[in-house]
Every structure is written in C-alpha cells, then in structure tokens.
Amino acid sequence: MSILHTARGGFEAIIEGPEGGPVVVLLHGFPELNISWKHQVPALAEAGYRVLAPNQRGYAGSVRDGSYATADLARDVIAMLDAIDTGQAVIVGHDWGGAVAWTVALMYPERVTALVAMNCPPW
Cα angle at 94 between 84 and 43, to 5 degrees? Predict the structure, then answer.
C-alpha cells in the first residue's frame, strides 16, 4: 500500500495493474477497509485493469479532516482519478462505498464509464 497524494489530502491506497489499462475504483463499505477487495484486486489487475482501491476519508492511513457528506467523498474520488492522471473509470462500491459510487456517477457522469453499486440502492 502507498499514500496517494491528491488535492484533497492523502489516501492510503492499493494501486495495481498496468498503467495503461482501464481504471477501476473499488470503494469499500462501513466499517471496512480497502483490504476488503483482496480477492478482486489481483483478478482485475490480471485481466488488464488498473485498480485503485483507496481507504476512504476517515479510514486507516487516509485523511481524516473535512466533510464526510457523500458529495465531498465523491470529490475525493475525482481527486484520486486526477492524481493518477486518468479521465474516466469504472466505479465500484459496496455498502457506504456504493452510496459514494452513486454520487460520483450523479455528479460527474463524464468521468464514469460504468457503475457497480452493491448492497446500496440508488438515490
């Protein structure tokens, strides 16, 4: 794991897979961590995806101050995409991460190629 430095703070993140591959962002639920995706990260990386699995704001190793409103957490995701220099990504979220994923898609549809929200209904 490393710290991904963004305009909105530092986020502990797992980043794996080829740099040129399509990006998949994996957003964990509450009270989980990015390690919850330990089985999906290698499988996606082997399939050619660039995988970004951050610990979201307030979780181990990531920035803790600031707003926890879903709109602000969505801004965190966009800042992470900017930090790895990618325009679009598949956004995958589970539980609370699903709520953040829905918000990213609603606020920034041009940055989302696909959305997967598990255990979280749409707004």
Answer: 60
Structure-token match 């990531």, residue found:
62
Q: What is the rounded radius of gyration, in angstroms, for the C-alpha atoms of the chain?
A: 13
Question: How many residues does this entry show for the chain?
Answer: 123
- Which tokens belong to 88? 């679009």
pTM for this one?
Answer: 0.97
Place of tokens 């963004």: 6
**Alpha helix segments (H runs only) across the chain:** 40-46, 70-83, 96-107
What dihedral angle (degrees, nearest 10) is formed by the CA atoms of 50, 52, 90, 9?
Answer: -130
ω before 122 within 30° of 0 (cis)?
Answer: no
The pLDDT of residue 95: 97
Q: Where are the alpha helices (DSSP H) in 61-118?
A: 70-83, 96-107
